From TrEMBL:
Protein name: Cell wall-associated hydrolase, NlpC family
Organism of origin: Nonomuraea wenchangensis
Residues forming coiled coils: none
Stretches that traverse the bilayer: none
GO biological process terms held by the UniProt record: proteolysis
Domain annotation NlpC/P60: ranges: 87-223
Record family assignment: Belongs to the peptidase C40 family.
PROSITE patterns referenced in this protein's UniProt entry, alphabetically: NLPC_P60 (PS51935)
Cited InterPro entries: NLP_P60_dom, Papain-like_cys_pep_sf, PG_Endopeptidase_C40
Keywords (A to Z) from UniProt: Hydrolase, Protease, Signal, Thiol protease
GO-annotated molecular function: cysteine-type peptidase activity
Lineage, top ranks: Bacteria, Bacillati, Actinomycetota, Actinomycetes, Streptosporangiales
């Protein structure tokens, strides 16, 4: 038998070649790809959580800051109210008069709203006369006075020399009739007043003035 016949015979008698088996490595999951996917998902979730946490912290901080500002404002207002409550009406009146230092004297000038044009020789000048200043100052403390020194002398309680307090009205002059001048006591022998035409609202140490000591008529506390 020839070689060709032998080969053909062997081919015919040999079993058919089996199809190739699937590559186990290709069919199996790839661990590195899965780890990468999980890592990416975890990073995304962590980033989202961090963003949410930061936003929450920012909101909380803003709310805390607003609450602290509100508390601070309330405390400041409470302190102002407390200070105002501690001031006597006389102290309020004295402070109001001191705020007018330097304002011109004007005969008949002054009202509860502040300096005004006067009358007569004060018609061309905006300012206060003595009783105009005291009525303005005490109006700031909620007490209404007449715009006349003699009437103010009777609009309150007489105060002894040793009991005088800030804001008390001091009266001078007039002999046995109505006083002719009024001022507000400040303490320590000082007073604030509108003295005369050509002058301005000023403070004076009446205890060091022989004139004012000689014509002093007494003190009155309005209200």
């Amino acid at each position: 038998m020839s070689r060709t016949s032998t080969a053909a015979s062997l081919s015919a008698t040999s079993p058919a070649a089996s199809p190739a088996a699937p590559d186990a490595r290709a069919a199996a999951p790839r661990p590195l790809a899965r780890i990468a996917a999980l890592t990416c998902a975890l990073f995304t979730a962590t980033t989202a959580l961090a963003t949410t946490t930061e936003a929450t912290a920012t909101t909380t901080m803003a709310a805390t800051t607003a609450a602290e500002a509100t508390r601070h404002t309330k405390k400041r207002l409470a302190r102002k109210k407390s200070i105002k409550r501690k001031l006597t009406r006389g102290q309020i009146a004295a402070s109001a008069a001191l705020a007018q230092l330097g304002v011109s004297f004007s005969w008949g000038g002054g009202s509860t709203k502040g300096p005004t044009l006067g009358i007569g020789r004060g018609a061309a000048t905006r300012g206060f006369d003595c009783s105009g200043l005291t009525l303005y100052a005490w109006s700031r403390a909620g007490v209404r006075l007449s715009h006349y020194t003699g009437a103010q002398f009777r609009q309150g309680r007489r105060i002894a020399r040793t009991a005088r307090r800030a804001g008390d009205l001091l009266f001078f002059g007039g002999g046995g009739g109505d006083p002719t001048h009024v001022a507000l006591y400040l303490g320590g022998g000082l007073m604030v007043h509108a003295p005369k035409t050509g002058d301005v609202v000023r403070t004076t140490s009446f205890l060091n003035s022989s004139y004012y000591r000689a014509v002093y008529r007494g003190a009155v506390r309005p209200g």
